[in-house]
Amino acid sequence: MNELIHPSPAPAVIVEGAAKRRRALFAGCGAHAIHDGLTDVIYVLLPVWQAQFAMSYAQIGLLRGAYAAMMAGFQLLASRAARRWGRKRLLVGGTLLAALAYLVAGYAGGLGVLLLALVMGGLGASTQHPLASSLITDAYEPGGGVKQALSQYNFAGDIGKTLVPGLVGLLLTVISWRASVMWVGVLAAVVAGWLWWMIPSTTSSVQAKMAKPVSGKGSAGGLRAMILTGTLDSAVRMGFLTFLPFLLQAKGAGTAGIGLALTMLFVGGAFGKLLCGYLGARFGMMKTVWLTEFTTATLIILALFLPYLWLMAVLPLLGLALNGTSSVLYGAVPDLAGEGRRDHAFALFYTGTIGGGALAPVLFGGLGDVTGIPVAVVSLAALLLLTLPLSWCVQKGLDSSSGKYQ
């Protein structure tokens, strides 16, 4: 009788559903890669712009801050707009706006136009995190594997951070910065067209036929604790990255050594994002967060005392733990948000993490000026330990929301 009421999906339906999930995952990963690449390529271009337009450091900070502020500040608006205009239109439109921003930057004759271009780029980038995350979550929830899919999405962002700035670095050796920037805009426009083709239609009959019953309505308290956990984690990560070159310099590292150290840290971080998402699905959010955050705090303090070669040896592990927590936290957001509020929840989460990452270098940099780098670094490690009790609060929210966190 039950089989008559709830028939099993036909093989064709299962195959079609699996194809749509893969399309959603590829689209979300592609969006994350291009947008993170567009965000981080600014670091490559800032010295070029400074030389071209004779800008002060304050003006350089204004450019970078304008992009970050627009990206962080309009994520909530993007999640609301998606309810009216559709997630697909907003995500593709945001990518096109980011592409247009780089085309405008290629024609910039001064600070004003460049600032306008980066404001446009930040506005376009604000659509990516909440909408792509929710796209993947909704696609994978019926068949399971949300947390693993989000870890792949998180990993894809680091791939973009590596490839796009690297591509521009190579282009700058053979063509002008204006042509290089415009080629980046063309690449983003091509990706936008690809996203329009790749993103599957919203909530198809296939998903409905395959969907498993969803219990629970989320947990507001757990979500607040999750956002605070992510904000602290991001703040410590950005604060430590600010101090690491100076720690290496004090241990005798030159420019090449610092560059190699950062590369090792970032490679470890990229794989940490992929690995820790799977660990979170296997062992649970709280256990994995306690492991990664305690490991990070311990290695941050050890970084003060280890000699240069030993520090270089542990940097991949430090990067793995330092960045890996974020994948575990992303994977828990859908469970805490509840049905129908995921775009909004992801927007809140990313606003907190990006905001924390932007403020930390300023606040802890000021602390370092007053007390010295060692005290500031120890303070970062101590701040990170606050995530341990917070993750317990998150776990309580998960348990009271949609059942056990698997």
TrEMBL record:
Superkingdom of origin organism: Bacteria
Keyword Disulfide bond (UniProt): no
Molecular function via GO: transmembrane transporter activity
UniProt KW Transmembrane helix keyword: yes
This protein's UniProt keywords: Membrane, Transmembrane, Transmembrane helix
TM annotation in the entry: 57-78, 90-123, 180-199, 220-244, 256-276, 288-308, 314-333, 345-367, 373-394
Pfam families according to UniProt: MFS_1 (PF07690)
Positions in coiled-coil regions: none
GO cellular component, one term: plasma membrane
Domain Major facilitator superfamily (MFS) profile positions: 24-399
Name this polypeptide is given: Major facilitator superfamily
Originating species: Pseudomonas batumici
Organism lineage string: Bacteria, Pseudomonadati, Pseudomonadota, Gammaproteobacteria, Pseudomonadales
